C-alpha cells in the first residue's frame, strides 16, 4: 500500500510536471503566435495607410494638383512659382500640390487622432520635410534596395509603430522636382506613417491573461480550451489577413484585379517571357465616350457600366489570363501563350461580347462600346512599360480610327491591317 501510494505520488508529480511543461509550452507558443499575427495585422494596416496616401498623391499629381478657393488666413504654397490664380467670378484660387496636400491631410488625421504621416526626402524642397534619424536611415536603406522600414517606439504617450516606404519618381513628379535632377523611376523620398499600438498591446496582454486564467482553473480542460481558442483566433486573424490581401489586390468597384495586382502579374509573365517559357501579349481596353455616360446618366450609372463591363470581359478570359482595372475606364489584359492570331481573336471576341451584351444589361439608350489596343512582348522590350506604351499607342490608333475596334501593333514585316468587323492590325512604329 505504501509502495502504491509512493508510485501514485510519483506518477502524479511526473504527470503534473509533464502537463505543466506542455501547458507552459502551449501558452508560450500561443502567446508568440498571437504576437506575430497581431504584429502582421498592424504592419498590414500601416501598408494600407501608405498605399492610400500614395494613391491620393498620384491622383493629385496626375491632375497637376488641385485648386481650392483661397479663404482668409490661407497661405499660398511658397515653394511654387505661381500658386494663385483669379477665377472668372473674382475669387482667388490657390494650388494644392501633392506635397502640400499630403501635409494638410496629415495634419487633419493628427487632429482627429487617427494616425500621422509625412513626406520626407534627403533633398527636400521644403525644409520642414527634413528626415529624422529613423527616416534618414530608412532613406539610405531604400537606396540600397530595401523596400520598407519598421520601428516600434516606446514613448511616455504610449507605444507607436513607425512605418516607411519609398516614393518613386513618376513623370508627373517632374513638374515640381525636375530641377532637382531626378529622373523617372528614381527614389525621390519616402512617406513615413505613425500610429499608436497601445490598444494592440492591450489586446495582447488581455489575451495572455485569459490564457493564464484558464490554465489555473484546470489543466486538462485548459488544453482543449486553449486549442479551440487558438484555432478560433487564428481563423479570425487569417480572415482579416485574407481580407487585407484582397483589398490590396482587388479593385473595389469592379471586383477584378487592381492596377498594382495586374502589373505585378504582368511583371511575372514578362520574366517568364525572358526565360522563353511562354509568349506574352497584352491588351489595353478603354470605354468609348465614357464621359458622356457620366454626364448624361450620372456617376452611379457609370459605375454600374464599369462593373458590368468587367463581368462581361471576365467571361471571355481563359483560366490563365489576367485582367484588371488600369485606371478610370481603362483596363489591362495580360495574355500568356498567345501569338498574333490568338491575340487578335481574343481581342475581337472581347470587343464583340461587350458590344452585344453590355447595353442589354445596363439599359442605356446610346450603345456602349470599347476600343482595344494590343501588342506582343518582343526581345527588344526592356520592361513592361515598353509593352504598355506600345499597347497604349495601338489604343490611340483604335480611337482615332473610329472607336469600337481592335488595333494591334506587332513587330512583324509589312502587313496590311485586317478589314471588316471592328478589328485592325498595324505594324509597329
List descriptors:
2 domains, 6-stranded mixed beta sheet, disordered C terminus, Alpha-Beta Plaits, Beta-Lactamase, alpha+beta, 429 residues, globular, single chain
Write up this protein.
This protein is an alpha+beta fold and 429 residues long. It folds into two domains: 65-200, Beta-Lactamase, CATH 3.30.450; 259-427, Reverse transcriptase/Diguanylate cyclase domain (Alpha-Beta Plaits, 2-Layer Sandwich). The protein is 52% helix and 19% strand. It is built from eleven helices and 13 strands. It has helices at 2-62, 98-111, 133-143, 174-177, 198-217, 219-249, 259-274, 290-297, 299-316, 340-362, 384-400, and strands spanning 66-69, 84-86, 92-96, 116-120, 149-155, 158-168, 187-196, 280-287, 322-327, 330-336, 370-376, 406-410, 423-427. The chain has a six-stranded mixed beta sheet with strand order 9-10-8-11-12-13, with helices on both faces. A four-stranded antiparallel beta sheet has the order 4-7-6-5, sandwiched between helices. A three-stranded antiparallel beta sheet has the order 1-3-2. Strand 9 (322-327) and strand 10 (330-336) form a beta hairpin. Helix 1 (2-62) runs parallel beside helix 6, helix 8 (290-297) crosses helix 9 and helix 9 (299-316) packs across helix 10 (340-362). It is globular and about 95 Å long. The model is unreliable at 413-429 (pLDDT under 50).
Determine the structural class based on helices, strands and strand pairing.
Answer: alpha+beta
The major beta sheet can be summarized as: 6 strands, mixed
Tell me the total number of β-strands: 13
Q: Which residue ranges are poorly predicted, with pLDDT under 50 across at least 5 consecutive positions?
A: 413-429
Q: What share of the residues does DSSP label as strand, in percent?
A: 15-25%
**Number of helices in the DSSP assignment:** 11
User: CATH superfamily of the largest domain, called what?
Assistant: Reverse transcriptase/Diguanylate cyclase domain
